[in-house]
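Predict the holo structure. Ligand: MRU.
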Amino acid sequence: MKIETLRWFNNRLEMIDQRILPAAFEYLSYYTAHSVAEGIRSMVVRGAPAIGVAAAYGVALEALRLSQLLPPGRGKVGMGVDSVNDSTPTLTLPLQGGGNGSVDFNAGMETGFTVLAASRPTAVNLFWALQRMRKVWESVATQTPQQVAQRLLAEAHEILAEDIRINKAMGAHGAALLKDGARVLTHCNAGALATAGWGTALGVFRSAVEAGKKISVIADETRPFLQGARLTAWEMVQESIPVTLITDNMAGHLMAHGEIDAVVVGTDRVAANGDVANKIGTYMVAVLAKRHNIPFYVACPLSTIDLNIASGKDIPIEERSVEEVKGFRDYHWAAEGVKIRNPAFDVTPAELVTGLITEKGVVLQPDVQGIRTLMRQ
Ligand code: MRU
């Protein structure tokens, strides 16, 4: 099954609503940067590369809206989902520069960039994509808003297509590291749903299977948002790749009993020294893997490496709503009044990373030198 996490359809961006998977499979439609930002913030779309692709389309949509290339009635500045279907109303915000078509294109675009940049802090792919879109905008700034909008849309399409190509290249490099019959643990969801398609860590599994290897996957549930239970397990089941779901606190037990041969995870940001930010709980898995001499690999497109950040301690870590820890959806199991923390990511020091799997190859024992060399290639 080909999973199209994001797709361009009839002058709009459609994204699978990942909050309701696997109970329901539904696309939501987006027409503005504001609503795309809300889609990122509220986790309709999540996963570092997918967030980057969504942001690129957010910029393109804003340009289309401001240059009035969207069909009439579309592209109101909505805060939430623009529509599940064509009849769902949107919340509206005032347009920059007043109504009646007198919108200041440049000011409106700047607002779009700002709103998108504020949606989530940890995945650097968001900022990488915004910077790439800004450069394209600057390169055609003298053209008409309509021409700018078309150019930005073409760039968003290219970012999406490129992401899938990169994942396949990473998949081939990563698959070579897994032996036939390997039992591989993963944490969170670094799959097709976290990217434009194929996935980073799950892309490695898909490529291994495509290469004829009989691997099996152990999926950490990934509290509190349950990306492992809801999304990774679902993706693997769709692909008929053998998958076993465990709660996060079972990984050490399985490792101690020789039931895990390798760990492959994704990442939201890698610092210049090779420290890796990924979903909360990844650090715990890496420590356990080291203790049990199990290789710990990180699937990492180059767009996730942030050379502006010297080490992991400077990576901004998102703190999410306490509601996510208190219970699930409407059901609360925690004692009312208890103090709750909810950091959404943690940092695994480079010394615990066996290798970074990138589209250009594998960097073993990543450090400043190894990453510098990789980025210069
Ligand atoms: O909070 P999320 O679901 O956006 O977190 C996702 C992860 O931590 C992924 O492992 C990471 O983004 C890599 S996705 C290829």
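The domain at 6-166 is CATH 1.20.120.420 (Four Helix Bundle (Hemerythrin (Met), subunit A)). The chain has two domains: 6-166, 170-376.
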